[in-house]
Design a protein that fits this description.
The protein has about 170 residues and is of the alpha+beta class. It is built from five helices and five strands.
Length: about 170
């Protein structure tokens, strides 16, 4: 969208929640682990990594493990307000900086057949909280308080601020 050149390097990081781990600690740890996993394969490059999770009543909603799990997550979220936490880590060499975005999202109350039809599209199966605000899940959203891009998984304002700290300021013209 912003015409910033990049390449994707999958980090291959274990994303399980540690026992007793708080949601913000979880996303911060994963964004840092992803950045550190990639920096070894791209020495000298500026690495940006992120992780997003959905939190309802202190419980972390990661990616669903099945279509039934996705319907169950969405059933619990619908008609309620939850938090979406996205942590970003930027690193080059031994330097690392992080930031956390927290937005509040309210899902509309909908019936079970609507949730099942959405899950049948396949879209929610690899999304934290089992929905994609920027995709087919958009009709499920009632309200967003905070950064829409953070809910998508990359809060641009934070990413651009961190990239600038590593000598990569954003410019509209190249």
């Amino acid at each position: 969208m912003l015409h910033i050149p990049f390449r994707v390097v999958p980090p291959d990081v274990d994303e399980h929640v540690l026992p007793g781990e708080a949601p913000q600690d979880y996303v911060m740890r994963l964004s840092r682990a992803k950045a550190e996993a990639v920096v070894a394969r791209a020495p000298g490059d500026v690495i940006l990594a992120a992780d997003t999770t959905v939190v309802l009543d202190g419980e972390i909603f990661s990616k669903p493990d099945s279509p039934a799990g996705a319907v169950a997550m969405l059933s619990r979220l619908q008609g309620r307000t939850h938090e979406v936490m996205t942590a970003i880590a930027v690193t080059r060499g031994g330097d690392l900086a992080q930031a956390l975005d927290v937005s509040r999202v309210t899902l509309r109350p909908v019936d079970r057949p609507t949730l099942e039809a959405y899950v049948a599209t396949g879209e929610p199966l690899d999304k934290a909280g089992a929905y994609a605000i920027q995709g087919l899940g958009a009709p499920l959203i009632e309200r967003v308080e905070g950064d829409f891009f953070g809910v998508m998984g990359l809060p641009l304002r934070l990413a651009l601020d961190l990239l600038a700290k590593f000598g990569r300021p954003y410019r509209f013209t190249r």
